Amino acid sequence: MNKRVFLLGGKDLEMLEIKKILSEKNETYENKDLSWGAKLSDYRNELEKYNTDDITIYGIELEEDIKAPKNYIEIDHHGKNEDNPSSLEQVAKILNIELSKEQKLIAANDSRYINGMQNLCATKEQIDEIRKRDKEAQNITFEDEKLAKESFETACNNNSNLICSKTSKFTVVSDLAYYKFDNYVIYNNEKILFYGYKKSNILEFLLSQNIDESNYYYGGGDFGFVGIKDRILSEDKINNLLEEFKKFDKKEELYSYHTFMFPFTFKDHFKKTKNWEYKPFEILEQKDFNEYVYFYKHIQDAIYNKNNKNSEKWISKYYKYKFQKGKYSINCKKGVFELELDGLSLRIFNTDVGILSFNLKNTKYSDKNSILAINDFGRRIYPQFLGEKFTGNTKNAILSNCITLELDDKIINEDFTKFNTIDSFKELKKLNLLPSFILELIEDNFSKDEENLTTIRPIIDDRMFIISLYMNDALITKLQNYKECSNQYEYETNDSWYKYIFIDGDEKTCQSKHMTKKLISESTYDRWIEWGTLFGISRYSFVSITGSWFGKNRLLPHIQTMYFQIFTLLLAYRATIIKFSDDIQNVTNETTQNLEKLSKDTEEIYEKYLSFLNKLYFKEITAQDQGIELYNQAMKVMDIEKYMSDLDHEITQLHTYVDMRKEKERNDKLEFISKIGAILLPPSLLAGLFGMNVLILDETFWNQSVSLLLIVLSGIIGFLFTFKKMKMLKIIIPTILMFIILLTIFGIYSDKKDLEKPQEIEIKNQPIEVILSKEKGEK
């Protein structure tokens, strides 16, 4: 069996653990307590000593600045060896031993830094303990810790990720910066370190600056670190390099794409003005064709302008605002963010709802905190609350200082100062919450009420809906890390992913780990996580994060077309449902006393509801699996089906109420007829009992008077029996009246008997005189 000897490199925690293992296994090793950056030449004498055929020399993390002997084997995981396991793991494999959990954390710390330990499900306490021991091994002092903190705080105060270190021990500064920045640069007047950037980009930059490969080192994976060795560059060259890197890092590149969507309801109809141009759908390029065939035919009929704009069969109409150059600027407590206006569109639906959309390109801000700030502060259209200082308190929390929309030479600025006086709220009916950058675009396109106030009403609340695509290679690589120990991806408990989905521009709005994990699970669509793409859906957002190339060349066209249309439909559902609910409430409040108008208005609502169900509300919109899954998940997260069920119940209740009112009206009419019949029943009964000629009206005044009295009395009896109140009178008065009627009838009947006695008829003979006259012409 060949003998072996190990030559130990620069002193750190991993190297101390290797030394400990070698000692425990009685392995031969040489240790000169070298610092980081140890070279093979430091062991020149030992190489000559062990240069025999029966000995294998293992050099651990030693830079090969001299030619190695044939029996030499390199153990390293930096630079060209970064795809190798950590040095500790390589030694364990040679010795055929199993590493403990603690040793695995030490190995992960050295090869992949803090992220590597997180992937092994290390707790914050365990990570801090490993980092503490590593710094102790590198002889880092309290003074180094103090200087590192000062350096880090200075960079934070300047809102910069370029950190000028007051200590030469960069690892202390990096421990602080890791939790603050996605990527950062640490430098002093002798060296410079890039951390968290895509390695290939940094190497490309160093090559452009004529820095030879032998003068820098790298490790930690695709988004690990790249450092220039000590004393390679002068202080002036380092400063020049930083200035060039700023330009390189901020060169115009699409980092994110944002669409702010303002859903609203209105009254009457849309009136086109000169700036809004009706856009019939046309297939002008491949992406138009891809979008069109993505949807079922009935969806195409609903979202594309295929009919003439004056056709009465339209379901929706699409308009584009005409401009040459535009900008959407957000001034908030997080800074000023200027986004290029890529498009401004308006879709009107026949349910009296509309959606105004701002399409924005971000080519200036690459860090995740800027993306979160753009989404959170850019979507606010009025203050959610007012404090003692009115909007001063709101702007300190969630509201922008101002939002400015530039359209060619037109500048629209909204600073929300109209909410800074209590007099603005005295007439609630005249309270207009909409910002100027929305009102000035569409106010003149819709009818106003009798007091000349706009009828445009926001649907969600103080926020617009957001579609956002963020392209960040480092972040998606981190989020897609799979932890075997806990059987989950990094994104499932990641605060940054939660904040991106739920648009938290400042602090995370859920402070429960269990609830955070549950909400992320319900809101994430991760079909393509292994390929580096995640989607998130909430009631206020549809977001995605992916890599730079795939985002710009593959996903962005989908975001701008198919996914935009899907969420346009979903927002239209939500807005229409709320519009129907408002209409139902208005109908029941205003027309409850007028059954005819109530019935007519209810019929109109029901007809519109049926049209909405048949022509706009769809259970499925595409045959594509991903489209089906995203649509179904969005329907669930946005509670569309629940809202539809509630609306259906409201309409059913309204119909039930109208039917009940109609039934009551019919019953009231029948009851009235019944009462008339009841009043006429006693006279009819008298006629039936005694015959129509029982009253001889033409004989005596007594008979005439009594007959009229009997008719009136019998009618009164019938009326009293139909009257709802006076229960005792219903018994007493009819009894008395009936007694009077019987007496009267008895008297009449007696008179009738007298009238029926035979009378003598005297017949007298009278002569008849006949006079004959002469006919005409007789003489």
UniProtKB/TrEMBL annotation:
It is found in: Membrane. GO terms for molecular function: metal ion transmembrane transporter activity. Its main location: membrane. The keyword tRNA-binding does not apply. It comes from the Bacteria. Pfam families: CorA. It is a multi-pass membrane protein. Keywords: Membrane, Transmembrane, Transmembrane helix. The chain crosses the membrane at residues 555-573, 672-695, 701-721, 728-749. InterPro entries: CorA_TM1_TM2 (IPR045863), MgTranspt_CorA/ZnTranspt_ZntB (IPR002523). GO terms for cellular component: membrane. This is Membrane protein. It comes from Arcobacter ellisii.
